[in-house]
Hints:
The chain is α/β, with parallel strands linked by helices. The protein has one domain (2-8, 18-252): Aldolase class I (TIM Barrel, Alpha-Beta Barrel), CATH 3.20.20. Helix content is 46%, strand content 14%. The protein contains 12 helices and 8 strands. The chain has helices at residues 2-14, 31-43, 63-72, 79-92, 103-106, 111-117, 131-140, 155-162, 187-197, 211-219, 229-237, 240-252; strands at residues 19-25, 48-52, 97-100, 123-125, 148-150, 167-171, 201-205, 224-227. Strands 4-3-2-1-8-7-6-5 form an 8-stranded parallel beta sheet. Strand 7, helix 10 and strand 8 (224-227) form a beta-alpha-beta unit. Helix 2 (31-43) packs parallel to helix 4 (79-92) and helix 10 (211-219) packs parallel to helix 12. The longest helix has 14 residues, at 79-92. Keywords: Amino-acid biosynthesis, Aromatic amino acid biosynthesis, Lyase, Tryptophan biosynthesis.
Amino acid sequence: MKSLQEDLLKKVRNQKQTFLAGYFVAGDPGVTESIQYMKAAVREGLDVIEVGIPSGNPFLEGEVISRAHGRIISDFETEQDTLDFLAALRKEVEVPIWIMGYSNDVVKSGLYKDIFAQNLADCFIIPDLPLQEALELKRELPGRLIPVINDGMADTEITQYVDGCPVVYCQIYRGKTGSVIPDFSSLPTFRARMRKITDAALMAGFGIKSARDVGQVLGAGFDGVVVGSQIVRLIEKNNQTSYNAFIRVLASMKETGKIRS
């Protein structure tokens, strides 16, 4: 449903609203339970569901998310298993669905073609996609790629990645997911640099673990923020009450970034 994506971006651009995205590994801890956790998160204020495609080699992930991939990889042995999960999820939530996956699992396998053809997701985030392949994918799927950018890239490289993209994933640090962020002080500078390059919605992620972290990111002027490892950790603990409360508190921090330049 492209309108879901368009509605989100209109709120960001026209109403200056911020958004909260949550990362989930598809099918964790079980196919039915996974969708229920995602539905609960939307009820508590999540604006975007980022679905991690199960991988046998989640090399960018820290221990928490790697364990989730390991728990459910046997339930996603075929491409159809993934498509069936996404189709079931699409029927249950009315927020944008963004696919997060590795190039081998999503692009080189051709999985993205079927996801796109069946309208099972709104955008794709491929963190290990080389520039030339990203340019090719952007031509094939206009407006559907969310490039992953870090502050160590040159402006010329960033410009090529982000050109024509409605949303940009700003990686707060270079490393594995779930690591501790030592310092948020450089975020305003990173955001200002990105804003000079693109007018796309800027979403920051990697290492965001708490409501305080969310508040710092949005307070630095980013349009959105994604939380991953802590959500996956709470799902692993299987405590629905704590999980719901955590999402609710995160969502309450969206007010932090409401008045932005």
